[in-house]
Amino acid sequence: MRTTLNLDEALLADFRQLAASGHRSLSSVIQDALREALAARAERGVRAPLDLPVFRGGGGARPSRITGAIVSGSSEPSPPTSPWRSRGP
Question: Are 81 and 64 in contact (CB under 8 A)?
Fold first, then answer.
């Protein structure tokens, strides 16, 4: 079957070089490459979408809490601080 493909020039040059060095047609080299790519994809299988947890609001690992715990040597977090505190002049 005939079809038209738009290939990157460097990729086409690589395919032509493979064809010439293996005394094969350009079509057969491209067909083999496509078959290998499809087989590799089938081997990997279809991955299920990840179910990532979503955290909304309230606390978290704010730098002020981490620093407070390190300075005090406590494993308990420091009391929450306002995110609107002054950062200096």
Answer: yes
CA–CA distance, 25 with 15 (Å, rounded to integer)? 10
pLDDT > 80? residue 65: no
Structure tokens at 61: 């690992």
Dihedral sign computed on CA atoms, order 63, 67, 70, 74: negative
> Are residues 75 and 66 in contact, defined by beta-carbon separation less than 8 angstroms?
no
- Could you state, in order of their start, the residue ranges of all structural domains in the chain? 9-44
Q: With a threshold of 0.90, does the pTM exceed it?
A: no
In the numeric block, the tokens 């002020």 are attached to: 64
Closest CA to 26 of 10, 13, 43: 13
- Name the percent of the chain in helix, strand, coil, to the closest 5: 45, 0, 55
Residue 14 has a CB neighbour count (10 Å cut-off) of 14
